């Protein structure tokens, strides 16, 4: 991608916890990086802030230090061994949009000063439909909902899609079916969900890809590695490579700015 273009900003969320949202985010980032894309993850799961754990890196500073004026944004960035750039989240910073105006302007200026060419900004967003979650999703160009084939996960994913589409008027909504038996079952899960979304919401939710349930994925998580590093020949690694290919084939959504602060301005200023 042309470095003067804004990065493609993709929010990754879920209706409930436990469906593998952060694992999807981090493994997708690694798979995109392996395709020679320049990728940044912003850990916006403000309650847990655990993307750094999933990537196996130690982040001594986080976005909270930037908000308090103790560090500049470039001081907290961590580049992983997989060549993914991480903006570490801060547990306890519940709602960036509710910050005082001076802190809002400060963090926007921090991103404005970060003159770094990027292809993708993946935003790992907390589960649920809190105001902070919706603020992040509204600021993204595309929204990916991670779901697995469990009744509660399906119901909560539908609830999130309903709020995004009906109350927030958001489009560009995609589904990643995670921890499925195989790709066919993933497509069937998507069809079931999309049929309901079309019938009751009039919204077409695109299927971005499926990730097969794989014991090697769990092994990789226990070793704080991506599955592409731990078991590159596994079914899950294959599926993440396919998912990265699908993402890279999406047409670019052009924005007014070529730097990451465009996202922050949208998120913080509404």
Could you characterize what this model shows?
This protein is of the alpha/beta class and 270 residues long. It has one domain: P-loop containing nucleotide triphosphate hydrolases (Rossmann fold, 3-Layer(aba) Sandwich). Helices cover 45% and strands 17% of the residues. An eight-stranded mixed β-sheet has the order 3-4-2-5-1-6-7-8, sandwiched between helices. α8 links the parallel β7 (173-180) and β8 (206-212). α1 crosses α11, α5 (101-113) packs antiparallel against α12 (261-269) and α6 (131-139) crosses α12.
Summarize the entry for a quick read:
The chain is α/β, with parallel strands linked by helices and 270 residues long. The protein is built from 12 helices and 8 strands.
**What is the class in the CATH system?**
Alpha Beta
Quote the average pLDDT.
86
> What portion of the residues fall into strands of 2 or more residues?
15-25%
3D shape: globular
Q: Can you tell me the CATH architecture?
A: 3-Layer(aba) Sandwich
Q: How many whole angstroms does the radius of gyration measure?
A: 17 Å
Distance between the termini: 27 Å
Please trace the helix and strand order, writing H or E for each element: EHEHHHEEHEHEHEHEHHHH
Q: What's the helix count? A: 12
CATH superfamily, called what? P-loop containing nucleotide triphosphate hydrolases
CATH topology: Rossmann fold
Derived from helix and strand composition plus strand pairing, the structural class reads alpha/beta
Largest sheet: 8 strands, mixed
In which range does the helix fraction lie? Answer: 40-55%
Strand order in the largest sheet: 3-4-2-5-1-6-7-8
The tally of strands reads 8
Spans where pLDDT lies below 50 across 5 or more residues: none
Task: Tell me the count of domains.
Answer: 1
């Amino acid at each position: 991608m042309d470095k003067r273009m804004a990065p493609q900003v993709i929010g990754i969320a879920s209706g409930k916890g436990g469906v593998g949202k952060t694992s999807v985010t981090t493994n997708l980032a690694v798979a995109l990086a392996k395709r020679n894309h320049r990728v940044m993850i912003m850990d916006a799961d403000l309650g847990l802030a655990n993307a750094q754990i999933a990537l196996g890196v130690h982040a001594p500073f986080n976005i909270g230090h930037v908000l308090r004026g103790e560090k500049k944004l470039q001081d907290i960035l961590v580049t992983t061994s997989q060549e993914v750039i991480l903006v570490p989240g801060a547990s306890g910073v519940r709602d960036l949009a509710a910050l005082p105006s001076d802190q809002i302007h400060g963090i926007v200026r921090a991103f404005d000063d970060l003159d770094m060419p990027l292809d993708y900004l993946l935003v790992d967003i907390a589960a649920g439909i809190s105001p902070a979650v919706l603020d992040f999703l509204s600021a993204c160009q595309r929204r990916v909902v991670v779901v697995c084939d469990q009744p509660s996960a399906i119901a909560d994913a539908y609830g999130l899609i309903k709020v995004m589409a009906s109350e927030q008027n958001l489009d560009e909504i995609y589904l990643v079916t995670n921890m499925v038996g195989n790709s066919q079952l993933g497509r069937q899960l998507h069809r079931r969900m999309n049929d309901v979304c079309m019938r009751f919401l009039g919204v077409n939710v695109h299927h971005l890809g499926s990730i097969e349930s794989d014991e090697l994925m769990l092994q990789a998580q226990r070793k704080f590695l991506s599955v592409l590093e731990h078991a590159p020949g596994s079914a899950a690694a294959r599926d993440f490579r396919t998912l990265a290919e699908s993402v890279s084939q999406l047409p670019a959504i052009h924005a007014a700015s070529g730097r990451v602060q465009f996202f922050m301005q949208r998120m913080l200023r509404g």
